[in-house]
């Protein structure tokens, strides 16, 4: 079976944030949202419309006027040691009176490729039907695929792109990038909305397993160009030529 590597997780909570600068190290530690011994990776970023604070363990928290984001690089971490979901739960539990509206659990994973053209070929010829519509212009067509699935209590939006993995050293690998959002609407749960969101946030590992299984079993099983020898435990990698996480939260009709 083709190899899929999870790079990052981003939990997005749609909620009005009147003063993003409230997001600071002292507040987070005094309220118990983060452990007292966590250290900053660098000085926080503050402006009128955004605040970002990053810790040495790879977790970042970003506040914007309409959302909170808890982002974490996976790298060589085991799933059990990831803290984004737990920190998001603590935030919601402590600030219960906020007007929480929806939740997006986002993942970005990639499948390394053997050759620069194999990622494009995978999308153009294995996921799409070949035809003369692809032969237009002077360069090879480049496609990006967006798929939407209704899963009952939530939606899954999945984007598939050809991109390049850039490592800290001058080394790059072509890859197929899978960016997904499990999106939950919580506006119908006015009475127990905080409890509902808390429960959703606690399911992020289940969502990651479902996301990975879906891609590996239904989208990659025919892809023979996967690079199996690439090291999957490298931190500080960068994906270029692909949309940044997190995707926008889906809107329910």
Work out the helicity level.
Answer: 10-25%
Structural class: alpha+beta
Head-to-tail CA distance between termini: 37 Å
| Approximate shape | globular
Quaternary form: single chain
Please count the beta strands (DSSP E, at least 2 residues each).
Answer: 10
* Integer average pLDDT: 81
Give the ordered list of helices and strands: EHEEEEHEHEEEHHE
The structural domain count equals 1
Question: How much β-strand is present in the residues?
Answer: 25-35%
Characterize the biggest β-sheet. Answer: 10 strands, antiparallel
Low-confidence stretches: 226-253
Radius of gyration: 19 Å
Question: How many H/I helical runs?
Answer: 5
Give short descriptive properties of this protein.
single chain, 253 residues, alpha+beta, 10-stranded antiparallel β-sheet, globular
Task: Provide the fold topology.
Layout (H helix, E strand, L loop, with lengths): L4 E10 L10 H6 L14 E2 L4 E4 L4 E6 L2 E7 L10 H11 L7 E11 L5 H10 L17 E6 L4 E12 L5 E14 L7 H9 L2 H15 L19 E3 L13
Antiparallel strand pairs: 1-5, 1-6, 2-3, 3-4, 4-5, 6-9, 7-8, 8-9, 8-10
């Amino acid at each position: 079976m083709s190899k899929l590597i999870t790079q990052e997780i981003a939990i997005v909570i749609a909620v009005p944030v009147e003063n993003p600068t409230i997001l600071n190290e002292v507040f987070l530690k005094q309220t118990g949202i983060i452990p007292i011994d966590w250290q900053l990776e660098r000085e926080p970023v503050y402006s009128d419309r955004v605040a970002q604070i990053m810790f040495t363990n790879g977790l970042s928290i970003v506040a914007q006027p309409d959302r909170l984001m808890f982002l974490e690089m996976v790298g060589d971490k085991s799933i059990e040691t990831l803290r984004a979901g737990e920190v998001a739960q603590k935030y919601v539990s402590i600030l219960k009176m906020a007007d929480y509206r929806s939740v997006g659990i986002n993942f970005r994973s990639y499948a390394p490729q053997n050759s620069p053209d194999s990622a494009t070929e995978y999308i153009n010829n294995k996921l799409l039907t070949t035809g003369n519509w692809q032969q237009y212009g002077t360069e090879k067509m480049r496609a990006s695929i967006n798929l939407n699935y209704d899963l009952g209590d939530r939606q899954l939006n999945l984007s598939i792109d050809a991109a390049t993995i850039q490592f800290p050293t001058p080394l790059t690998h072509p890859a197929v990038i899978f960016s997904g959002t499990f999106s939950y609407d919580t506006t119908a749960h006015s009475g127990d909305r905080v409890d509902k969101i808390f429960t959703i946030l606690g399911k992020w590992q289940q969502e990651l397993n479902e996301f990975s299984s879906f891609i590996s079993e239904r989208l990659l099983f025919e892809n023979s160009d996967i690079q199996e020898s690439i090291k999957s435990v490298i931190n500080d990698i960068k994906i270029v030529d692909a949309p940044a996480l997190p995707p926008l939260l889906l809107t329910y009709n």
